[in-house]
């Protein structure tokens, strides 16, 4: 089936599995995400969290099953290119272009992909830099910024494309502790503005406060899911309890 145009879901992960040779990273995972939901994925390292996220925008191709974004199946190059213009991705390691200034990093995709004029891309970029508190760094090079500042620029760059959804892959795990708060504040603000977000994170405070739904992933499956209150305060699975008892200390 090519598409699901009548679906109420923005992201529809339909029975996907993913293997790397003999390693089964995802096992028959199904997940449906409505517009404006903030879905936070937690779980131990190596559980398949990041692979699941990367399947949502085609950075990884499932071994079986299908991912749909806004009714479009991620099963062809044309469809992937179409979907990637609508899904922003924020990585653990920022991935800014080191040879470009901050503002040029933000302007590039809207100009190349959305065919936005240079003037409009600049105006949009400066507005977003103001939003993330870095307007004065517009002409700096990424190497002149701290890790936290680079991550805030990466969020501004993702927002510049006016995406329908933002995916975050452990966006604070490479940061010094004092930088984490600034990045989480920006993410919280974006969520409150109604952006659909899927966040892989170890920041349990963010999951509790901002998530509309929390998924606990272990050994390639969604072992538990629910509201933050259900997952954190009324945990059903012993494995989830064990994990939370360690990370919430």
TrEMBL record:
Superkingdom assignment: Bacteria
SMART domains with a match to the protein in the record: AAA
CDD domains (alphabetical): ABC_HisP_GlnQ
Keyword ATP-binding in annotation: yes
UniProt xrefs under InterPro entries: AAA+_ATPase, ABC_ATPase_HisP-typ, ABC_transporter-like_ATP-bd, ABC_transporter-like_CS, MetN_ABC_transporter-like, P-loop_NTPase
Record carries keyword Cell inner membrane: no
GO molecular function terms listed in the Swiss-Prot or TrEMBL record: ABC-type amino acid transporter activity; ATP binding; ATP hydrolysis activity
Family: Belongs to the ABC transporter superfamily.
Protein known as: Polar amino acid transport system ATP-binding protein
Organism: Allisonella histaminiformans
């Amino acid at each position: 089936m090519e598409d699901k145009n009548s679906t109420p879901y923005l992201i529809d992960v339909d029975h996907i599995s993913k293997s790397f040779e003999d390693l089964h990273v995802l096992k028959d995972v199904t997940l449906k995400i409505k517009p404006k939901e903030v879905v936070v994925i937690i779980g131990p390292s190596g559980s398949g969290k990041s692979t699941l996220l990367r399947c949502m925008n085609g950075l990884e191709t499932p071994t079986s099953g299908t991912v749909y974004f806004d009714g479009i199946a991620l099963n062809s190059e044309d469809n992937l290119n179409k979907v990637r213009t609508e899904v922003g991705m924020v990585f653990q390691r920022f991935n800014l272009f080191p040879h470009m200034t901050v503002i040029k990093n933000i302007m590039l995709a809207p100009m190349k992909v959305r065919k936005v004029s240079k003037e409009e891309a600049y105006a949009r970029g400066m507005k977003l830099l103001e939003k993330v508190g870095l307007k004065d760094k517009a002409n700096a090079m990424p190497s002149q910024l701290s890790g936290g500042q680079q991550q805030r620029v990466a969020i501004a760059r993702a927002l510049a494309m006016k995406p329908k959804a933002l995916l975050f892959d452990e966006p604070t795990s490479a940061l010094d502790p004092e930088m984490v708060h600034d990045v989480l504040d920006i993410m919280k603000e974006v969520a409150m503005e109604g952006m659909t977000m899927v966040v892989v994170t170890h920041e349990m405070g963010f999951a509790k406060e901002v998530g509309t739904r929390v998924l606990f992933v272990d050994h390639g499956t969604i072992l538990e899911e629910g509201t933050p209150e259900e997952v954190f305060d009324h945990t059903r699975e012993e494995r989830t309890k064990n994990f939370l008892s360690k990370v919430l200390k």
